[in-house]
């Protein structure tokens, strides 16, 4: 296992201690969450899982977890998810694995959100990682041209076979190559107002706790 994966695994295993018997748990998506699912399965406790992608739902079922639909629960105690970038305010970019929409819905409905990342993802400013924007297929070419005109350098995300990637929700993803951003709030507002944008990968004021895996584990908490 390379050093980055080892750090992802450390953060994921540390996060398992936040999950207690009987909780309803939001299960994120990605390679870091994959380690978390394994660690959670090893705890052998009863909990109800709400998933954020078909991938996580399939893996959860494989591990024998009780998985229910987000609309079947009246609350989610805690969600554990990965992130592609996290800044000093604990804002982040998510959606590198194309799961941002369901992740945001589950996050918004969670009492507590914990992110697990390796240390390479902690950045002073967001935007080195391309910002995913989930868009309705109809008119997505027009939207891409508008983003281009506005200097946001969009590229249409392709799958491993080189075909247009389709998300679990049936949408496309435009990745914005920004090289940093002055104001994540302003960009978030701009994107949210564009017709055809379903949602975007800026997760602002969402994470309560970020667990950073490195030589040591660092636990960062949002000051409310
Ligand atoms: O869409 C995917 C999610 O937002 C992931 O949590 C994020 O991309 C981090 O993934 P990984 O843990 O594989 O680096």
TrEMBL record:
Matching InterPro entries: NagB/RpiA_transferase-like, Ribose5P_isomerase_typA_subgr, Ribose5P_isomerase_type_A
Binding-site residues, substrate: 29-32, 81-84, 94-97, 121
GO BP annotation list: D-ribose metabolic process; pentose-phosphate shunt, non-oxidative branch
Broad enzyme group: isomerase
Pathway linked to the protein: Carbohydrate degradation; pentose phosphate pathway; D-ribose 5-phosphate from D-ribulose 5-phosphate (non-oxidative stage): step 1/1
Extent of the signal sequence: none
Active site positions: 103
Reaction equation(s) it catalyzes: aldehydo-D-ribose 5-phosphate = D-ribulose 5-phosphate
GO-annotated cellular components: cytosol
One of the Pfam families matching this protein, by short name: Rib_5-P_isom_A
Superkingdom of source: Bacteria
EC annotation from Swiss-Prot or TrEMBL: 5.3.1.6
SUPFAM superfamilies: D-ribose-5-phosphate isomerase (RpiA), lid domain, NagB/RpiA/CoA transferase-like
Family assignment from sequence similarity: Belongs to the ribose 5-phosphate isomerase family.
PANTHER family, alphabetized: RIBOSE-5-PHOSPHATE ISOMERASE
Assembly, per entry: Homodimer.
Biological role: Catalyzes the reversible conversion of ribose-5-phosphate to ribulose 5-phosphate.
Protein name in UniProt: Ribose-5-phosphate isomerase A
Native organism: Weissella koreensis
Gene that specifies this protein: rpiA
